[in-house]
Specification:
- The complex is a heterotrimer of chains A (268), B (400) and C (296).
- Chain A contains 11 helices and no strands.
- Chain A is mainly α and 268 residues long.
- In chain A, α2 crosses α11 (237-262) and α6 (137-163) crosses α8 (178-206).
- The longest helix of chain A has 34 residues, at 59-92.
- The mean pLDDT of chain A is 83.
- In chain B, strands 1, 2, 3, 4, 7, 8, 9, 10, 11, 12, 13 and 14 form a 12-stranded mixed beta sheet that branches. In chain B, strands 5-6 form a two-stranded antiparallel ribbon.
- The longest helix of chain B is centred in the middle third of the chain and has 15 residues, at 229-243.
- The radius of gyration of chain B is 21 Å and the shape is globular.
- Chain C is mostly helical and 296 residues long.
- Chain C has helices at residues 10-20, 22-51, 70-77, 79-113, 116-127, 134-145, 150-155, 167-192, 195-203, 208-236, 241-245, 252-262, 266-288, and strands spanning 55-56, 63-64.
- The longest helix of chain C is centred in the N-terminal third of the chain and has 35 residues, at 79-113.
- Chain C is flat, with a radius of gyration of 25 Å.
- The relative contact order of chain C is 0.12.
- Residues 1-6 of chain C have low confidence and may be disordered.
- Classes of the chains: A mainly alpha (268), B alpha/beta (400), C mainly alpha (296).
- Chains in contact: A-B, A-C, B-C.
- Chain B: InterPro entries: SBP.
- Chain B: Residues 1-18 form the signal peptide.
- Chain B: It comes from Actinoallomurus oryzae.
- Chain B: This is ABC transporter substrate-binding protein.
Chain lengths: 268, 400, 296
């Protein structure tokens, strides 16, 4: 593409500066995970590997990580189903109130988390408690799924718009029924869009703390809640840095795999 | 969730209808203080049978550690080994959550803070405790027994767990001379402007009220949790004036420790455990219980009225106040143990001295956190006091 | 789906019915998502806002269901709530502006200049911080802004020093936290913009700036607005970052949190919560025409 040389250089510099801004605090976290000082005094005067070995032996963080993964996968699965259904309805049909669906889907992410959090908390306690269902992992998944729908919905909607209906019509003409068409024709075409939306949805759920605070049952500890609790426990804060540093490194794996599978950066 | 938890423990030590409990010198135990409050008749356990194999607890984070956060911090597994009672813990974030969880009837025991404790008693969620079945009860400091928040009409409802005070801390290299009064944090012309800290919770209004009770006797403040409108407004005005000098409000351990270490903060309220952490890191700080006294907290283990595992619950209550376990939990959480013999078991031999565990004159100066309600806690009948919802809204105004 | 292979089976017949009756298909597709969003979500919100007209019993903490406008009177009469609202909106707007200014050139570089291979890595690089944990990043910024922290450490040789804790620190921290949510939609929007269009503009003699104004901006604007929904709303609802780096200041999220979390005064918290909700709904309705809602 022809851009003036100056513009190109300026953009390149902006990119580098932007990445630097993104990564400097993460490097601070990484360095602090080796900082012998318990309150991360800067600059570090002594280096230690103690936090890494203590984090490694910490059973709480592993179970919290597992809880977070379960919550993220559960919420993403629900969001995939609901988001795809809503996207199909809006893209393939004309009906009264069609315009409102987009607004409705976006509302849970657009309204402040604390509002969603206390509203769901209030509803769960008044509706579910009499039924004997306490706040737990289930309610976390419900809460997360609510604001994750939008990521799937928008990705699938954009993909459906691009696909048009030709292939589906061809499939029907060849005798496939509605379900077969979806399974063998539409779904494969949607897969990368779902993957991209699902990844963002998982990330949203994985780092969510405010809605989680209000929807998690007393015994449910997702990773952000674990971090929250441990930052405020005497002498546990350095371990949090280790966990964060490890997560940053580990996170490259799922993102990269997803990128490879989808082969389609546009959809994210 | 430590800061939520403390914000709520802030409301602790309830005694909703109790009179005079904030003034520890005049409180003579639970019996005389609870007027017009009759708990449901629930019998205490008469004798201890064999354990039921498990026990379900509702507890604050850090009260029932099983080694999953730190391998060396574990008093749950030894309990399970000794009694055969498997422990299932629900960590509660707030007192309200505790009250709601106990209402479900699925739990056997709870580490209730003051506000929760009397609500639990009034709702019939918890039963009186037969202290004869808790052998270690005899070693608990008398200053914690039969208090308005753990007994009603002379009947014990719980086993005291531990306590702490909100102290005044300063950087010895930056603050001279060493302060002995809260006046130094409320001074409008403070030389430490911008470097003062205060606890970020509505309950901090009580600290201002406590200071005013000493410096402005004409206001007639007897209990910092029982403030009529005039007294309340005076405390709020003092805090609005203090805000100009505050660098930041703190609500959690790490934040407080960091800012004292960096010197962003040189003066303000703290907990003993924070001061200890700083001293260990060689930060020149010192703490004191100022001459006006201070605010503080105290928690209680209670047993559910419909406990499915009452024997294991009693065994747990006895365990958690046994010298060794009580020492462990006190050291991990950073509070004064309730068992006098715990002091011999702490890994840091000076632990009880630093936390003043056995220092009753010290604790007499501590006004344990209470929930302010419109019926004045100090027994005044002719005025209405300001309730906690209004305290919260005033706190918003103070921070502006 | 195992019976799809048996023609004439119940699934097949059901599929046939669906094929003949689009309205049933539509109803099937819409019912579940709408049940979830309308009943579970909007229902919860409605239930919350009804409580705003109630009060609490100070002793039991139970909500007293008697209609009462006192909560809203307090909100209107006390100037402090106006101040806090304006401050929160100001912070959210500043965060949004900062994020769009930082994000746009980065997204443009990623979408239009970087090679496809570099593109993939850059997307990963931008997404990575999302996994580091909100609190950890917020505390990292606390260290940056501390009086003896990283910023001062960098700036002191040249005689400068950081802004310390307060609203500027809060704004920077929030902008940092939500930056990826702004970069991604803009990047996706730019990807959809055909290179040929840019080249055509260039061939017709448009300078960079003119191309930007007449070709790029109209296409990307909805994406920027879409990103702003994230940054604005996430900032408006935040109460944690300001506690960590905000010094002594507070935002509207803190007011809601303090009332519900520590005072157990759900009715008043609900009343306060109507403010950010109203702001966001107005914002969404205003930007709906731009097509931003399809660009999230």
């Amino acid at each position: 593409m022809n851009l003036s040389r100056g513009t190109r250089i300026a953009l390149r510099v902006a990119m580098i500066v932007g990445l630097a801004i993104i990564y400097v605090p993460l490097f601070v976290v990484l360095i602090n995970s080796f900082n012998a000082d318990k309150t991360f005094a800067w600059p570090p005067t002594h280096v230690t590997g103690e936090w890494w070995s203590r984090a490694w032996q910490n059973g709480g963080v592993r179970s919290a990580l597992w809880t977070s993964v379960k919550a993220g996968l559960g919420a993403t699965a629900v969001a995939c189903v609901l988001g795809t259904m809503a996207a199909f309805a809006v893209q393939r049909y004309r009906f009264f109130g069609r315009e409102t669906v987009s607004l409705l889907v976006i509302l849970p992410i657009a309204l402040p988390g604390i509002v969603t959090g206390i509203a769901l908390n209030n509803a769960f306690r008044t509706v579910l408690s009499p039924l004997g269902i306490q706040l737990g992992l289930f309610t976390v998944i419900v809460g997360h799924a609510t604001f994750c729908i939008v990521t799937i919905y928008n990705n699938v909607l954009a993909r459906l718009r691009r696909l048009g209906t030709n292939v589906e019509e061809a499939s029907a003409d060849l005798g496939a029924d509605t379900f077969q068409t979806f399974r063998y024709v539409t779904f494969p075409l949607l897969r990368s869009a779902l993957l991209a939306g699902g990844l963002l949805s998982f990330a949203l759920s994985f780092d969510e703390i405010i809605v989680t605070t209000f929807t998690a049952g007393a015994g449910v500890e997702t990773l952000p809640i674990w971090i929250f609790n441990n930052l405020f426990r005497p002498n546990q804060a350095p371990i949090v840095n280790v966990v964060a540093a490890a997560l940053i490194v580990l996170s490259v794996v799922p993102v990269y795999i997803a990128q490879r599978i989808s082969g389609d950066t546009r959809a994210i | 969730m430590r800061f939520t938890r403390l914000a709520v423990v802030a409301m602790a030590a309830v005694s909703l209808l109790a009179a005079g409990c904030g003034d520890s010198d005049s409180s003579k135990g639970g019996g005389d203080s609870v007027a017009g409050f009759t708990p449901p008749k629930i019998p205490a356990l008469k004798s201890l049978g064999p354990g039921e194999g498990q026990v379900n607890l509702v507890a604050w984070a850090g009260y029932a550690e099983d080694g999953s956060n730190d391998k060396s911090v574990d008093w749950v597994h030894p309990f399970e080994k000794a009694t055969g009672c498997k422990v299932n813990t629900k960590i509660a974030g707030t007192s309200d959550e505790m009250v709601n969880l106990m209402k479900t009837g699925q739990y056997d025991a709870v580490s209730a803070s003051g506000d929760a404790s009397l609500r639990l008693i009034a709702a019939g969620s918890v039963a009186p405790v037969n202290t004869n079945l808790v052998p270690n009860y005899k070693d608990i400091f008398s200053g914690l027994k039969m208090k308005p928040w753990n007994s009603v009409n002379g009947v014990a409802y719980g086993i005291p767990h531990g306590r702490g005070a909100n102290l005044l801390m300063w950087r010895t290299d930056k603050v001279k001379p060493a302060p002995d009064s809260w006046g130094v944090v409320f001074d409008a012309n403070s030389p430490y402007k911008g470097h003062i800290t205060a606890y970020d919770s509505p309950i901090y209004i009580a600290d201002a009220a406590l200071y005013l009770s000493a410096t402005q006797p004409s206001l007639g403040i007897k209990d910092p949790y029982a403030l009529d409108q005039k007294q309340f407004d005076a405390a709020v005005n003092l805090l609005k004036q203090q805000k100009n000098n505050v660098g930041e409000y703190w609500s959690d351990y790490l934040k407080s420790q960091q800012s004292f270490k960096s010197g962003d903060t040189v003066l303000g309220t703290t907990w003993q455990v924070i001061a200890n952490g700083l001293t260990a890191d060689k930060v020149p700080v010192e703490t004191t219980l100022p001459k006006e006294g201070s605010t503080g907290w105290s928690d209680t283990w209670m047993v559910a009225a419909k406990a499915q595992h009452p024997n294991c619950a009693y065994k747990w209550m006895d365990w958690i106040v046994s010298p060794k376990a009580n020492a462990q939990v006190a050291e991990w959480f950073g509070e004064a143990p309730s068992n006098s013999k715990a002091c011999a078991e702490t890994s840091d031999k000076k632990f009880c001295d630093t936390f003043h565990a056995a220092d009753e004159p010290y604790w007499n100066k501590v006004h344990y956190w209470n929930t302010p309600i419109s019926q004045c806690l100090d027994g005044r009948k002719n005025v209405k006091c300001v309730d906690y919802a209004k305290w919260t809204q005033a706190w918003t105004q103070i921070k502006g | 789906m195992m019976s799809v292979t048996s023609p004439g089976g119940p699934v097949r017949r059901f599929a046939g019915l669906l094929h003949r009756r689009p309205s049933i298909r539509l109803a099937g597709l819409l019912s579940v998502p709408l049940l979830w969003l309308v009943i579970a979500y909007l229902g919860s919100l409605a239930a919350l806002f009804v409580t705003a007209f109630w009060t609490t019993n100070e002793f039991t903490g139970d909500v007293v269901k008697v209609f009462d406008l006192g909560n809203f009177q307090d909100l209107v009469n006390e100037s402090v709530y106006r101040t806090i609202t304006l401050r929160s909106v100001g912070v959210a707007a500043a965060v949004t502006v900062i994020d769009s200014l930082v994000a746009f050139p980065m997204a443009f570089y990623m979408a239009k200049i970087a090679s496809p291979r570099a593109q993939r890595w850059l997307v990963i690089a931008v997404l990575t911080p999302l996994w580091a944990g909100y609190l950890v990043k917020a505390y990292a910024w606390r260290i940056m802004f501390s009086g003896s922290g990283v910023l001062d450490w960098f700036l002191s040789p040249v005689g400068g020093h950081g802004p310390g804790y307060g609203l500027p620190a809060t704004t920077v921290t929030l902008a940092y936290l939500w930056l990826p949510y702004m970069i991604l939609p803009i990047y996706a929007g730019l990807e959809r913009l055909p290179n040929s269009l840019l080249d055509a503009a260039g061939d017709l003699g448009a300078r960079s700036f003119r191309t930007f104004r007449t070709v790029v901006w109209p296409t990307v604007f909805p994406a920027v607005v879409a990103g702003s929904i994230f940054t604005f709303s996430l900032s408006l609802g935040d109460y944690i970052a300001v506690r960590i780096v905000g010094g002594r200041s507070q935002l509207i999220g803190n007011v809601v949190y303090d009332n519900v979390g520590t005072a157990n005064n759900l009715p008043f918290a609900a009343a306060v919560a109507t403010i950010p909700v109203a702001i966001m709904v107005i914002y969404l309705l205003a930007v709906r025409r731009t097509g931003a809602l399809e660009n999230l």
